[in-house]
Amino acid sequence: MAAVSLRRVLLAALVVVGAAFGLLKAEAGERTPVPQPVKPAAAEKCVADTQFMRRNHMKMLLHQRDETVHEGIRTKQFSLANCVSCHAVKGADGKPVAYSDPKHFCRTCHSYAAVRVDCFECHASRPEEKAKAANASDSSHDPALSALSAHVAEMKK
Amino acid sequence: MSDGGNDMIAPDRRALLKSAVGLATTTIAPGVTLYAFGVTQAGAKPADQPVTSAKRWGLLIDINKCPPGCDKCVTACSEENGWKSSGHPETDAQWIRKVTLRDPRTGAKREAPAMCQHCASPPCVDVCPTGASFKRADGIVLVDKHICIGCRYCMMACPYKARSFVHEEHDDQKVEAPRGKGTVESCTFCVSRVDAGRIPACVEACAAKAGAAMTFGDLNDPASDVSKALAAGASAQIRADLGLDPGVRYRNL
Amino acid sequence: MAKVKFQTLDETSASFWALVGLHVLLVALGLGAALYMEEHGHIVTGMNNQIVWGLPHVFAVFLIVSASGALNVASVSSVFNRLAYKPYARLSGILAIALLAGGLAVLVLDLGRPERLIVAILKHNFKSIFAWNIYLYTGFMAIVAAYLFAMMDRRASQNATLGKSIGWLAFAWRLILTTGTGSIFGFLIARELYDSAIMAPLFISASFLYGLAFTVLVLIMMSSETRAELMTEEMIGKFRGLLAIFALATLFLTIVQHVTRLYSTAHMDAEMFILRDGGIYTLMFWGGQILLGTLLPLGLLAARGFDGGRRGLTLTSILFLAGGVAQMYVIIIGGQAFPLKIFPGYEVSSSFADGAIGRYIPTLPEALLGISGISIAMLLTAVALRLLPFLPQAAPEKA
Fold it and tell me: By residue range, what is the domain housing residue B22?
């Protein structure tokens, strides 16, 4: 009928498309429990304390990422591979679980916070067999920490 | 980037020792590094130092030493970087491949490995809208998959058909070779190995299991194996007419 | 000349709503297809490592090229002072914006990582013609929007200098924009069927043709919708003449494009691939682009046939547009199907399809995504026509 405004028709179409999108994307199942990420046994802290890491790990990864890819700077302390290696969570078969497993260290919090992790679209989400021997890096580097804090503080400016 | 960018990264001595395959390094002055003993002439740079244009990595492939039917370089690359057949030959990635060349007049056949030629003036870098396709200071051409939007314009631009688009999801990546659906990839000269002072997997495999047809090294260093080999005789660039100055050269093509 | 009055599209027929419904459905299917492609990766399309750009790009480039051409009528009226075209200037502007939006939507939704569009907006490599195009496209939208404002706002439209200068700016911009679009292919030194400066003028000429064909089709449809003849006999004659000129210009540049390559021994095989040996591409070229898309509609225009030319003009415009899609298919996909000569002088073969003709069979999702671009453009136009007075009232009498 001509009286129905085009806008309304379009709006309805949008809602339908939106709902279909939601259905496709929504994960079936129960509520996500409050995360209890497992701390690596090897060290109390690797880069910085838990509170700091919770808030800033993404900034460090972002910073390191460009230096590694474009300039070939490959220090281990802030490398994603090192994070994945230390924080590996073992599954029922005794092998580290991949990001597709809800028990994966990163996933426990990210599912809860509903923040998408893009890293593992490309990066390995678990250490390689041979890389497993690579242990945690030195537990606390004070110069690194202070430099990092300076860097983060500067970013906040 | 802050000026203090470098000093935030503390040298991780232990990791360095591991990654460089027992290579001991001593920095005697900024930018000058002594190598006490090493596996290759490639030489490891300290892990916390950026690459510079002092080096330009290159590769010479002697086709006479490249036996027909041999694909040791291809399997080594696939193994090292985690790309493999998924049964879809038209969409599967191939970072390196053996190309069979047949002279239409004589019917004479030979084979040559083809991969990213790591051009000094790479067309893929020119056309990339976001700068994801880039050339490192040391001449290695890479895709920064963090900012690749998957437009595939670089694949249209590459004269060597060196690039592949990742058409499917993967969750079995190698730690040192991130690759993911929706982004473009190609030969990296095994960049993390090179940064650790090692040679690319294909070169290593060719030397160990095949005809040692490949010589890798620093084109800027006249004393490097690759420079000496290049100086010793004629070599060719593929599509030299395009003037791209590829880092990969062929002999007896 | 009497002052032109404009109207919104108020009274609409059932067939109009049926058409709107069809376009809504096609857009929904296109968006669904894009989601499906993003979820599964491009493995669900016919695109591969040989044919990296497929049907979505054919439609996207076709729409983007049409968009700049749709602005023709407005440019003719304000830049070249042809008052007879003035009643259609607003429609031509809004159609240009809508077509560009449709084309860009398809282009973006086909990306491997469409959610990273923000990266494309924030990070630029200025040596890339693609990066330049991002500015050209967004700039075009802004300039044409300003142009429309200058035409439609009560006070701004009094200011002749303003209208004229924005008109000039829009005209220059659209020429640069299409130069940029053609150069996406023209700058590709690697592929012998692209690498040519003629791509820019060829695309500009094609844009005149497609854009006008779109404008004429919308005008004819709106004439039946408003139950008033929006075009006088005189205007129909002018549009017929312009379509013929643009089609002949495009044909001329196409001939130069192919004959130049044919003359070079090095490129003869590539050229013969399109002209003789290319299977579907040869068929698309001779049957689609040349016969159905150029010669037949030119013949129809010359014949001055049925129905005072209106039905003939509808058919002619549809044929020109179909020919345009065929032309884009031959250029974009045919250009990739012919193998790269990595080792000139040798017959080559490999596991990576070296030396082999690229195989491309489009799948349903990518076809739906491509077609949805046209529907997005048409829906946007319909919404605009309902909301604001873009359409002229009745046929403006002869001056």
Answer: 1-49
Q: Assess whether B70 and B45 both reside in one domain.
A: no
* CA dist., res. B125 & res. A109, Å (int): 38
C137 vs chain B: nearest CA distance in angstroms?
14
Angle at which helices A6-25 and C364-387 cross, to 10°: 150
- Distance between CA atoms of B76 and C166, rounded to whole angstroms? 61
d(CA B213, CA C168): 62
Q: If you classify domain C6-392 with CATH, what class do you get?
A: mainly alpha
How far is the C-alpha of C85 from the C-alpha of C241, rounded, in Å? 14
Provide the number of CB pairs (under 8 Å) joining chain A to chain B: 104
Structure tokens at C278: 């290319």
Cβ–Cβ below 8 Å for B179 and A122: yes
H or E stretch at B142: strand B141-143
Asked whether the beta carbons of C301 and C240 are under 8 A apart, the reply is yes
Q: Are residues B131 and B216 in the same domain?
A: yes
Helix pair angle (C296-303, C310-329), 10° resolution: 160
Q: Are residues B108 and B1 in the same domain?
A: no
CATH number at residue B221: 3.30.70.20
Q: What is the pLDDT of residues C241-280, one digit of tens each?
A: 999 999 999 999 999 999 999 999 999 999 999 999 999 9
Contacts A24 to C, Cβ<8 Å: 35, 39
- Written as one string, the DSSP assignment of C259-326 is HHHHH-HHHHHHHHIIIII-THHHHIIIIIIIIIIIIHHHHHHHHT-SGGGHHHHHHHHHHHHHHHHH
pTM of this prediction? 0.87
Chains that touch A (3 or more CB pairs under 8 A): B, C
How many angstroms separate the CA of residue A98 from the nearest CA in chain C?
A: 19
Domain count, chain B: 2
ipTM exceeds 0.85, yes or no: yes
Which chains have 3+ CB pairs within 8 A of C? A, B
pLDDT value, residue C229? 82
B81 touches chain A (CB under 8 A): no
User: Which stretch of DSSP H or E encloses residue A46?
Assistant: none
Residues B35 and B107 in one domain: no
Containing C241, the helix (H) or strand (E) segment is helix C233-263
Q: Provide the phi-psi class of A135: left if phi over 0, else alpha when psi is between -120 and 50, else beta.
A: beta
Contact criterion met (CB < 8 Å) for A13 and C31 = no
What are the structural domain ranges in chain A? 38-156
d(CA B182, CA C125): 20
- Buried b / exposed e over C312-334, threshold 16 CB at 10 Å, is bbeebbebbbbbbbbbbbbbbbb
B127 & B196 share domain:
yes
Express each pLDDT in C335-350 by its tens digit.
999 999 999 999 999 9
Return the biggest CA–CA distance within chain B. Answer: 63
Last residue in a domain, options B49, B67, B85: B49
Nearest CB to B180 within list A122, A127, A143: A122
Angle between helices C129-152 and C160-186 (to 10 degrees): 160
The alpha carbons of chain A give a radius of gyration, in whole angstroms, of: 21
Per-residue pLDDT of chain B (253 residues), as tens digits, is: 334 333 343 444 334 334 433 333 444 444 443 333 334 444 578 888 999 999 999 999 999 999 999 999 999 999 999 999 999 999 999 999 999 999 999 999 999 999 999 999 999 999 999 999 999 999 999 999 999 999 999 999 999 999 999 999 998 999 999 999 999 999 999 999 999 999 999 999 999 999 999 999 999 999 999 999 999 999 999 999 999 999 999 999 8
For tokens 């800027």, the residue is: B220
Strands B248-251 and B57-62: parallel
